[in-house]
Amino acid sequence: MKVSDVMKINFNIFNKKLDVKGFLIINYLITFLILYIIMQLSYKSSTFILEKFIFNNEQINITSISTYYNKNFSQIKLGILSEMGAWEEVLDENKKVIYVKGEKKDDIMQYTEKQLFELSSSIGDSPENPYVGEVLPVEGKNGEHYLFLCKIDRLKVKHSFIYKPNFSSKSDSFLSLKTYGTLYLIQALLLLIGIYIYSAISSKFITTPLKNFVISIKNFKKLDYGTRSTLKGLNELQEVQNEFNEMVIKLEEVKEENKIIDKSKKRLLVDISHDLKTPITSIQGFSKLLLEENITIEERDKFLKIIHSKAIYSAVLIEDLFELSKLEDSAYKLSLAELEFNEWLRCIIVEYYEEFQNKHFNLELNISESSIIFKFDKKLMKRAISNIFNNALNHNENYTSLKIESYLKDNDLILKIGSNGDAIDKSISETIFNPFVKSDNSNSSGSGLGLAITKKIIEKHGGSIKLISTEFEKILFVICIPIKF
Asked: Which residues contact 428 (CB under 8 A, 6 or more apart)?
């Protein structure tokens, strides 16, 4: 298997989602493959170097067959080797066969260094090289340099002879050190290259995503809530990314909500200042007139009534503001009691019956006879519904039809209060539940906080309220409260 193939496998594996455990297992397997490849390359290179350099040395320091050799070739002995089918050969300086003792069973008449090496080792064990032997450097009668070798069938011996180099000379020792040093250097380089390549590949799935994540965090520190982390890697990293992105989204939402709240607070302060300034200015002006001596009794009584009404308006406005601020506090607790809602609602309608009669309202009640029992704050709920009733009384003409309907739907209380009076302008209906919003056709001097308080009370009970318009009810308030709140 090639290194490029391993890389492809690595990339293909990491295209799928992995957790850290799976990632480490894959790393171990691929590391093993890389080390195996390096070992194979090292083995091949070692064999090449040994054959090319180390065994290119004619000085052979082996004496195990020296007793069979004789400078007089005719006196060379085979001894017990003849019984094993062995034979002996004498080679000249060119490694040509010049003498044979015994029956030669191959046709090699001149040897190469490689053949001599394979003959005296197990590397060449193959059908093409069925013999093993021993090689010994010898001298002739007149000091000639020969090679004396003995060959035998591999199947007839348990151990092969070994062809050993002679490192007695300084040049040979230097050659050995240089060659082995080169070999170890090549192996070390192969290992380092393999580790570097695999580290680069692995970093794509750990280091690179983490660097990108750090960049996202730095952008986030600059209050860049639009930043999003886009990691591609292990499951755990993607989980961290998802949690980070969700956190950023929520903080971005909180930031936008805070902007809206700040804007609402500023508008609320302006509205409060305006709504309080008007009655206070009136009280200040008319009280100054009362100090004058030339006013009549009728004028005095008139001024006192105006001052009284403005004082009541200011008190109601302050009370409503206090109530609204309490409801907006998340720590505010409801005083819940388990009551039958429909019977309680009928009691509230009875309290307003005289006011409805005074304006000649046509009441249409469609309150379910079945019991709807759940826990709610009866004081706050009365305030919420009373605000809607007061809104109907103040914003509609005489002889208006008022419809009140209550029923249970999918474990939710549905309460509808609608009238056939003049429809509220769309631009106002969309913000009718905001503080200090008043309809244009209002003839009252209300604070403009009633419906805002109603909405907060319903929401405190886990419900919702909306204003819609139908063919028969131009103004229809729809309240939905879960009875398991």
From this structure: 437, 439, 440
